[in-house]
TrEMBL record:
Keywords: ATP-binding, Nucleotide-binding, Transport
Protein name: ABC transporter ATP-binding protein
PROSITE patterns, per the entry: ABC_TRANSPORTER_1, ABC_TRANSPORTER_2
Record has Ligase as a keyword: no
A GO MF label: ATP hydrolysis activity
Taxonomic lineage from the root: Bacteria, Bacillati, Bacillota, Clostridia, Eubacteriales
Positions of the ABC transporter domain: 1-226
UniProt cross-references to CDD domains, sorted A to Z: ABC_DR_subfamily_A
Protein's organism: Desulfitobacterium hafniense (Desulfitobacterium frappieri)
Record Pfam families: ABC_tran
Length: 236
């Protein structure tokens, strides 16, 4: 089942300065779709378009189920200066109309998983970048939406944090959620994504599972990195 269908003819922050062209894809239940490309390729702009945050867009973003909820986990943590970690979680639960019992259970489980339980009454603005990234992951996964939109989740995460994130990804996929994740960490993406959308200068240069990407790049046994470089060379 499609959780979101994206058809962007063009898009940008100004109508006269378009960044995206001919972007079409879907994210299905149980999928982890990797939005792959270098810095400045348009990955974050695509995510903003999916969420309706791009000032100009010619196209359509369709959520087939009108009741589909999504969680957005940004690359840069967004935190309140005067709220403790626990108060951040309480605020998110209140916005999501989560019962107190469900909130406490999920919050404590995630805090323990990411080894932040002892820090729950501290101010996250004083945390390291990696710890702040874990806070954003906890906030997103606590809500258990049907769709996760994740922007560069690996930046700042230590190996334990990355393992915990990947464990949660597997769990929510098994529960039927879909994930759209942007990253330029091709080695990790190759291991965990079910399909890929390769972006260059705001345009899709290839998409599909790894086998399809290999066929399109004419590298039958190539890594995702090698395939991406080959496709870029074909564009030039």
């Amino acid at each position: 089942m499609n959780l979101v269908q994206v058809n962007i003819k063009s898009g940008g922050y100004l109508k006269k300065d378009l960044i995206l062209n001919d972007i079409s894809f879907a994210v299905k239940s149980g999928e982890l779709v990797g939005l792959i490309g270098p810095n400045g390729a348009g990955k974050s702009t695509i995510l903003k378009t999916v969420m309706g945050q791009l000032p100009y867009m010619d196209g359509k973003i369709d959520f087939p189920n009108a009741h589909t909820h999504y969680a957005y986990i940004p690359e840069q943590p967004v935190l309140y200066d005067n709220l403790t970690l626990w108060e951040h979680l309480e605020f998110a639960a209140a916005v999501g109309k989560m019962s107190r019992e469900t909130f406490v259970s999920r919050a404590e489980e995630l805090l323990k998983l990411f080894r932040l339980y002892k820090e729950k009454h501290r101010l996250p603005v004083t945390f390291s970048k990696g710890m702040q990234q874990k806070v954003m992951l906890i906030l997103g996964f606590m809500m258990r939406p049907a769709l996760y939109i994740v922007d560069e989740p690996f930046i700042g995460l230590d190996p334990h944090g990355m393992r915990d994130f990947l464990q949660l990804v597997d769990q929510v996929r098994q529960d039927g959620a879909g994930i759209l994740m942007s990253t330029h960490s091709l080695d990790t993406a190759e291991k965990i994504c079910t399909s890929f959308i390769l972006i260059h200068e705001g345009t899709i240069i290839s998409q599909g599972n790894l086998e399809a990407i290999r066929q399109q790049s004419r590298l039958p046994e190539g890594s995702l990195f090698d395939c991406f470089i080959s496709l870029l060379e074909m564009q030039s």
